[in-house]
Design brief:
about 400 residues; alpha+beta; 2 domains; twelve-stranded mixed beta sheet; about 25% strand; elongated
């Protein structure tokens, strides 16, 4: 029990952004453990899908927290908050692993650009998988429609990508009937798409005549055209790719346009790319847990490093609950379980409720300390009743 209490004190210092060199519980150390365990969980796979995702940590009501930046709310407006980039690796069956996480702010002193943040995510992930000999397919949404990002992936051995395209106004090379490659705007190549397949699947989509989107069975038409993509700096270098259009029959919204350097020449290869992109949705439960399950978006804390540390510990909880390579052998997981009230028993591992409760208690304690310390900063001391209450419970506020 003494060891658990000591561990809790270390986690409190970590959550408040204080020095944790001895305990190695700061955000960078925790995510390093997650990356190492995630890579170890995936190295035995034949090939990997790497989902690169950008996630907003919204702090709409926050005004005084450190380094707040503007991020998109769910309705498209801008609110205060932070951003993070995350990479989840997926094997063919159920193997998963978190390979990268970093919470950042464009207002922080060490921030340079989002492109460099994305490059760091790709490079550190590739380094973690340097001994992996199979193919890696990076899957990205429209937020990564960027030539620099694509070429960063292509510069690594055995790495390909599938990215949803947003900018149809970019200049690419298209092969004319004569065999010559000619410059075209990307949207001008759409008339040359060749139908390849039609698949049935279940999607959340609004069809014509429906008032709102719902999950339902739909038909998706797949067609593709080969194009070449210029290197962002060296225009003598190009990459042979395909643009795949996925059009939901009868849908109100626009089709998806997916860029990939995997060959798309027949029905089977077209279905393969569609499945690659759909795989990113299989990890939405993990991202939803990080953003909402333990209420970190509602926590009011002033210190940016404290927020980074707590979100990193959120990934520890997710790493155990969603089988991202973490087990009860990791002290970080055991500590969250103990904080959640778990008592070690044979064949009785902690469940989602216990782990979430442990994380919630950690967040509540860190938030409480932040509020108390802020009160002292503003008023010089705590009210006498609060001081007596803290003393009665043997609680010493660490400044």
């Amino acid at each position: 029990m003494a060891e658990v209490k000591s561990g809790e004190r270390r986690v409190r210092r970590m959550a408040n952004g204080e020095s944790t060199q001895r305990s190695q519980l700061d955000a960078d150390a925790v995510t390093r453990v997650l990356r190492e365990q995630g890579a170890a969980n995936l190295l035995g796979e034949e090939d990997l899908t790497l989902v690169l995702d950008g996630m907003e940590l919204r702090r709409a009501g926050a005004r005084e927290q450190g380094y707040l930046m503007r991020v998109k709310a769910l309705d498209g407006s801008l609110v205060n908050g932070y951003r993070s980039f995350n990479v989840l690796g997926l094997g063919r069956e159920n193997a998963r692993g978190l390979l990268y996480h970093r919470l950042f702010s464009s207002m922080a002193p060490d921030f340079e650009s989002e492109n460099l943040e994305i490059r760091a995510a790709i490079q550190e992930t590739e380094q973690a998988l340097v001994s992996f000999a199979g193919w890696k397919t990076w899957v990205m949404d429209m937020g990564f429609d960027n030539d620099d990002v694509w070429w960063e992936v292509w510069d690594h051995a055995h790495s390909r990508l599938v990215c949803r395209v947003y900018h149809l106004e970019r200049i690419v090379l298209w092969q004319a009937a004569s065999g010559q490659w000619e410059e075209r705007y990307l949207d001008a190549t759409l008339k040359h798409l060749q139908p390849l397949a039609e698949v049935e699947t279940r999607l959340e989509v609004r069809l014509q005549g429906q008032k709102r989107a719902k999950r339902q069975k739909v038909a998706v038409q797949l067609s593709a055209v080969p194009i070449r993509i210029y290197h962002p700096e060296d225009k003598t270098r190009t990459k042979y790719t395909w643009l795949l259009r996925a059009k939901v029959v009868g849908a109100v919204g626009d089709p998806w346009y997916l860029l990939t350097d995997w060959p798309v020449q027949d029905a089977e290869s077209a279905r393969r790319i569609f499945i690659f992109y759909r795989r990113r949705w299989t990890v939405e439960d993990t991202f939803k847990f990080i953003k909402t399950a333990f209420g970190v978006e509602e926590v009011q804390m002033m210190d940016f490093e404290a927020v980074r540390n707590l979100v990193a510990y959120g990934w520890v909880a997710a790493g155990f609950l969603f089988q991202l390579g973490l087990t009860l052998e990791q002290p970080e997981v055991r500590l969250l379980a103990r904080l959640g009230g778990w008592e070690e028993r044979p064949n009785r591992p902690p469940g989602k409720q216990v782990i979430t409760r442990g994380l919630r208690r950690l967040i509540d304690q860190a938030a409480t300390e932040a509020i108390l310390l802020n009160h002292i900063k503003e008023h010089g001391d705590l009210p006498p009743f609060v001081k007596r209450l803290l003393v009665a419970y043997g609680y010493k506020l660490e400044r």
